Fold each of these.
Amino acid sequence: MNGSNAPTFVSALFGKRWYLPLAAIIVLIAYPFFVSNYLIDIAFFFGIYALLGLSLNIVLGEVGLFDLGHAGFYAIGAYLTAILNTRYQIPILVLLPISGLAAALFAYIVCSPIIHLKGDYLCVVTIGMGEIVRLALINNLFDLTGGPNGVFGVDFPRIGGFTVDSSIKYYFLIWIVVGLAIVGLVSLQHSRIGRAWNCIREDGIAAGASGINVRYYKLLAFIIGAGLAGVAGNIYASKLMCVSPESFTFWESCLMFCIVLIGGMGSIPGVLIGAAFISLFPEIFRPFALYRMLVFGSVMIMMMMFRPGGFWPRKRGGVTYRSLMEDAGNGSV
Amino acid sequence: MALSRPYGDRDILLETKGLTKIFGGLKAVRDFDCAVHKGEILSLIGPNGAGKTTVFNVVTGIYTPEHGEVIFKGRKITGHKPHRIVSHGIARTFQNIRLFQDMTCLENIMAGQHCRTSSGLISSVIRTPGMRREEQRTRKVAEDRIKQVELWPFKEELAKNIAYGSQRRLEIARALASEPEILVLDEPSSGLNPKETQDLMEFLKRLILHEDLTILLIEHDMNVVMGISDWVVVMDEGRKIAEGMPEDIYNNEDVIEAYLGKDEGEAYVGPVVHW
């Protein structure tokens, strides 16, 4: 960037380890050609959780708002896709942006009155919001949601003559969306909007006194986060071909929360690590199904004790204080 | 209503009229009138609990007053949200430093530029040329400010890691980055050693001299008040009890009484005390 030391896209994310994203992309592209459909599906759900983690990371990681009802937004996207597709045959790919926008609109409406709440108070209200969405779905809202059975027969995404109908095609669909989301979110992190979000997380009053419209940026975070979760819901609905309320329980919101905490709040590589952990862990420990929650819980506790900032916390700035002091020491002596 | 200045009146930049702020049953500020003239350093002093910080919080939009008005450049700004007040041109610092701890010093100052920039969501996501230019400009302004407060070596350091005195300067730099017309400082010298306090005074004097700026400050250190103020306003129990030139305030009976109480003259050992 013409001589200025402003961080570029890759350096912002990985520092000097620019080869890491390159390797990751190559592995992601090659992976499905060498493994069974079962493993491709696991990687697909890794992608879904990555997208959900990224969406919650905006709200929880960047702005520090405790949102334990994120599955509600995810459900809105999935159900909107399922209902509009099965009843009116609207193509899935047309519904992709629409389900994102609908979830965003829903977030705007429900979050506007509660956005001034702080910390645990907001947390409790979002739990309630998530549960209300789920209960509305179970109770067959407007005779549209199909009650506990959900909605069946969601179509494949199609463009022209091309149909996304196999595991490998779904795999690429979700990872392309995740890739685009990452590019957009890294850009946001290094913009005035990303800085404003972080300022609000650090100190809301100081953020206001520095000229940041706290209410607006909190709402914006919820809207974008919900929109991304809605997009994830769309892809999820067409992959499973059906949606039912038990996919959008409080537990699902907790998993997203864990993804952000495991990886490191506000860290995009961290979210990917967290999503990998959450989606791969149950598969690896499938033979010990009885004990896997025990192991899962222990791992979470260990994690909070030994790496409270997450596995890959976001690193800011180039110089550490220690290196500066050493430089000063070398210079003067 | 505003007392005219012996050193010549200039335009009134900021004015409060009949300001009253009530917390429960406590009238923290009562009927407070004050005028800040363009280009001066006005100190607001008074004993603990006199309501100085409350006045600041009302002026900067953190509290909404029960009665009265805040007028900035002839415009009523009472009850505006803090971020709007900053964009009008009033920037502040806090008594207990409030920095964005886990962000770098440079990012802290760049945050101050927020209200002077306008890139929206879409242009930030796709990084339009306009957004990149604005980002470069923000960085440039922040780098100039960080040099001005002599924190350049720490620009990539997290704000929580730098020394206390440096944090104070960083907070002032953040306020300056919002390009204010009036800088509102809440006890800028608290926690500083005498050398740092001296540097701070020099810095504020330079600011007034070289930039088109007005400073309103709360201060406890009487050396600072007497050393740099053009005008002093004294508060006690939420009311203004006196205002005038620093040397007049120094010998004002009411002021001495407010600080030291009545009939305790024996405790008073002459004018040079650090209240």
Note: Strands of chain B lie at 12-23, 26-37, 41-45, 67-72, 75-76, 90-92, 182-186, 214-218, 231-236, 239-244.
Amino acid sequence: MRTPLFLLIWLVIAAAVFAGAVVSHNDYVFFAGYVVLQYIVLSTAWNILGGYCGYVNFGSAAFFALGAYSTVALYKATSEYELYQLPIPLLMLIGGAVSGLVGLGMGYLTLRLRGAFFAIATLALAVVLQTLVVNWDFVGGSRGAYIVRPEALEPFGPYIRYLFLMMLLLAVAAITTARLIEHSRLGYGFATIRDDELAAEASGVPTLKLKLIATTISGALMGMAGAPFPYYIGYLQPASAFGLDYAVNSIAMPLIGGTTSWVGPLVGAILLGSLQQIATVTISSAVNLLIVGCLLVGFVIVAPNGIVGLVHTFLQRKPDEFVGRRKVELDSPEAVP
Amino acid sequence: MSDLLEIDNLSKRFGGFVALDKISLSIPAGERLGLIGPNGSGKSTLVNCICGTLHNEQGTVQFDGQNIDGLEAHRRTHLGLARSFQLPRPFVSMTLADNIRIPLLYTLAARGLHLSQRSIEERCATLLHEVGLEAKAHRKPRDLTQVEMRKLELARAMAAQPKLLIADEAMAGLTHSEVEDILTLLVRLNEQGVTIILIEHIMRAVMSFSRRLVVLVSGKKIADGKPDEVMRDPEVERAYLGQ
């Protein structure tokens, strides 16, 4: 399938989702749906570095928070000088640019590390950034910052609908980007990095450059997902922006869905994200991470390649079994004329 | 004409251990060079220094008239230096065809040769046919036998259209006829103009393939010349058979 067609199909699906949510006449659907969509973007972004290249990033929350705090900083700056508030799409681009740049920098400093060492470095980045934000008074420091969300925005109606739509479009953009990478020369290069970096270099793949591209794209998408968050939540404090949920979920969702293609993070985020939203309403929000933990343990044991891997093996096994049975039948004495 | 590969006074240490000690070696284009030596004599370290996996502290390596010291491994591959690994290192998540596709996508493209989707597929098929793996083009490396794995390794190196191919123990553990298969392949490549360095323990293979033989012992080059003369060299005999 060509990329424009793929994009078109997803835009149609997105339109249907939005229409469905509007028809439901329940604004809570938008609030819950926003979180799920945000996780689709985060897990797709994580997967570009973690799934395609095999570099596990524990610092997703840092990139997300950078996007969110870019918005807070700009909000404060524009309020202080009584300027016009920047629109969400522009804030997303700015948040993406900031996180993308930090991704590039982090990549340059840490990508010579492999395995657990890289993971520790990304975790350290999150801690360092959180400390910086806590001590930065302009964006509220440890007290947090209030963002006054406009009541409504025409022609969307309540502001949450507008935020939901923006996140929906970002999710479509993220999925399309991931798929585009997967089917391109870049995707093949990423896969060689995951498989064997030494052999990749010997085949002419510039591994460091490709890894930097991956950290930049991945970081930028996470930042874009974080940019509208202050408007969603209304009050942002470091502990919520750098929350453990983001780091854990953006790893767990691709792992549960499957890391080798764009479908995995999407499936994982919809499944796990919805489950968490349902649990938040029916049980308590504290049970969320427990659900993630249990599912993760289950999947690591039962389906290490995620749901996509499970489906793939199932589809692949069927024809084989069929051929096997046919062969047995032909070999059996009855088959001899 | 200057030589294709010129190694001058190359040394490599790992901590206090001297792995390579002032190696100098010139290889003209079209050569079939055998490189032998006991285990731990520095053969693979030399290959790694030539290919950029390791960086030498001392001395220079010139390839095709260009000093390549400090150049990253993939840039050396782009220049026309290819290697196969001692232990095959296929891209395990990809089909054999995709394994071959990587050098086409990256190395040939870096030389300004952008192939169409179809000609990439044709080339993958041709290369796999040359090593007798075309039937398994859409299988994954885990379905391969040892010899097939080594053939894939060679095919992937060949896909980069190298000027110099270094085959690092491409035949270890193979049977007589499998060794013949790979030798035939290497000789054919050499006839097409590719310079080849063969690192091997199987003396029969080295002797039948090489037109020049270099012996490394404890990181030092102790002999360099015609294969039969080198094998009669008392120092080589001493290194291999003991005193």
Note: Chain B has a mean pLDDT of 89.
